[in-house]
DNA sequence: CTTGACCCTGACGCGACGTCAGGCTGTGCA
DNA sequence: TGCACAGCCTGACGTCGCGTCAGGGTCAAG
């Protein structure tokens, strides 16, 4: 098949296919002697995958890594797509629910403040995280559990959870400023408290998972930035305390 | 509130707010003496609307017309948002169903051709139409009915529907080429058949609605292009035949 | 052998921001 | 009272995913 036919079949423009060819996302498996692009059924399959992941909001570069993932057979792709679509379904349902709540509030004469509206809508769970969270957490049970639990959270729950988190963070910062070593008892205890908190509020945070989180705090600049804003050196400090705590508990 | 706070609350970047200010989509209602942007609660409400419509896939220019729509009070906005979200829910559900069908097919050892996969996924109902269809058809009963009915269509149904449509179109083209006047009996009969077909397959197409469609065929370049590709002058011809048919039947 | 639909490769344009750069403002604390 | 540092300002250029010409070759039907 040549470009025009493929474009019509897939519902994209010829230019899009040219683009995918140029950036190496989807190069037709053949060319005619006169330079016409020739797409094979396998190419069409790949295009199908590409368009699906694209529609799910992934930038093309990530789409490439997803469809090229050597550890993913067709069945794995289907499972992943299914999961992503389910997530999207959930988020859309949540948005519908938010709009309905607003309608209800209006019907009852209650006037929500803009803040409440934003909170209802959950900008703390923005759409962009769809792709991101998937990549970060993948298909882990922890993520699924967290999704299930937080789904039921009310606004007050979130306020409480956030408060608890900030509490531990400020106490970490105080310890750091006081010169308490990261591998000392009190620092390790704080780390343990941090772990328990996550387990209570999100998912069973094992020592192993917690250690992973600790590493992430220094490796992922967004998390690092979060801690550094509270106190310089805090990301590394928390990370070290978590590692020390994991080492102590593992024995 | 100044930009940073608003950005944090709404989950967007400061740059985004600057952008919205520059393009006039959301200009803060005030500035401090030193030029700092000051956002009022009303501004936040507007931002909330903007972000919602943006998330629904509207380009910012259209978002502006939507939020500025003088005929839309808050309740109307909520209803519209609710509708759009429901549509999105439906489409996502359809995609989930498609993936599940693929999984089933695989489980049963059936290998779908790429064509079948694309058809399952319905590129004939692409995501982009979400915003477009809304604007075109708005909240009309016809559109709602069409949505409800076509939702249950199988692949075979679509093939049949498409075939019927093409049948009438080619007969229109033949009449045009044969020099049959657009306001003659046979042409009007074709128009009437066209109307019945829509009524059967999509929604109760009244004479009035049909007349509106006829106008659209010559006014909207995309529809015009569709007919012109079949035969030059066909858009105008079909439009005229529809108008003649409506005039005849109205008496 | 022409005509019109289809294909090719640049190359520029655009929407919705991201990302500096260079400079002013506001505030906690020494 | 001064200063450090976070936060705000306005350009201005960069990026992503294509849309849209421009200029030119190709293919099939009549």
UniProtKB/TrEMBL annotation, chains A, B:
<dbReference type="GO" id="GO:0003700">
    <property type="term" value="F:DNA-binding transcription factor activity"/>
</dbReference>
<dbReference type="GO" id="GO:0003677">
    <property type="term" value="F:DNA binding"/>
</dbReference>
<keyword id="KW-0010">Activator</keyword>
<protein>
    <submittedName>
        <fullName>Transcriptional regulator</fullName>
    </submittedName>
</protein>
<feature type="domain" description="HTH merR-type">
    <location>
        <begin position="1"/>
        <end position="69"/>
    </location>
</feature>
<dbReference type="InterPro" id="IPR009061">
    <property type="entry name" value="DNA-bd_dom_put_sf"/>
</dbReference>
<feature type="coiled-coil region">
    <location>
        <begin position="75"/>
        <end position="102"/>
    </location>
</feature>
<keyword id="KW-0804">Transcription</keyword>
<dbReference type="InterPro" id="IPR000551">
    <property type="entry name" value="MerR-type_HTH_dom"/>
</dbReference>
<keyword id="KW-0805">Transcription regulation</keyword>
<dbReference type="InterPro" id="IPR047057">
    <property type="entry name" value="MerR_fam"/>
</dbReference>
<dbReference type="Pfam" id="PF07739">
    <property type="entry name" value="TipAS"/>
</dbReference>
<keyword id="KW-0238">DNA-binding</keyword>
<keyword id="KW-0175">Coiled coil</keyword>
<dbReference type="InterPro" id="IPR012925">
    <property type="entry name" value="TipAS_dom"/>
</dbReference>
<dbReference type="InterPro" id="IPR036244">
    <property type="entry name" value="TipA-like_antibiotic-bd"/>
</dbReference>
<dbReference type="Pfam" id="PF13411">
    <property type="entry name" value="MerR_1"/>
</dbReference>
């Amino acid at each position: 098949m040549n470009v025009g036919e493929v474009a019509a079949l897939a519902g994209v423009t010829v230019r899009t296919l040219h683009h995918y060819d140029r950036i190496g996302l989807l190069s037709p498996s053949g060319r005619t002697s006169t330079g016409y692009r020739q797409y094979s059924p396998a190419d069409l399959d790949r295009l199908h995958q590409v368009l699906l992941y694209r529609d799910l909001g992934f930038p093309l570069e990530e789409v490439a890594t997803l469809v090229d993932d050597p550890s993913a057979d067709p069945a794995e792709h289907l499972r992943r797509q299914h999961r992503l679509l389910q997530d999207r379904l959930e988020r859309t349902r949540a948005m519908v629910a938010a709009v309905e709540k607003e309608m209800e509030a209006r019907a009852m004469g209650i006037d929500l403040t803009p803040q409440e509206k934003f909170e209802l809508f959950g900008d703390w769970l923005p759409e962009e995280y769809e792709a991101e969270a998937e990549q970060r957490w993948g298909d882990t049970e922890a993520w699924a559990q967290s999704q299930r639990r937080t789904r039921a959270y009310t606004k007050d729950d979130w306020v409480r959870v956030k408060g608890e988190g900030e509490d531990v963070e400020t106490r970490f910062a105080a310890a750091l400023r006081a010169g308490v070593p990261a591998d000392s008892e009190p620092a390790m205890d704080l780390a343990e408290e941090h772990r328990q908190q996550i387990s209570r509020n999100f998912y069973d945070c094992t020592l192993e998972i917690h250690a992973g989180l600790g590493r992430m705090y220094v490796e992922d600049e967004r998390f690092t930035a979060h801690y550094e804003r509270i106190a310089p050196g805090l990301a590394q400090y928390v990370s070290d305390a978590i590692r020390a705590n994991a080492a102590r508990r593992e024995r």
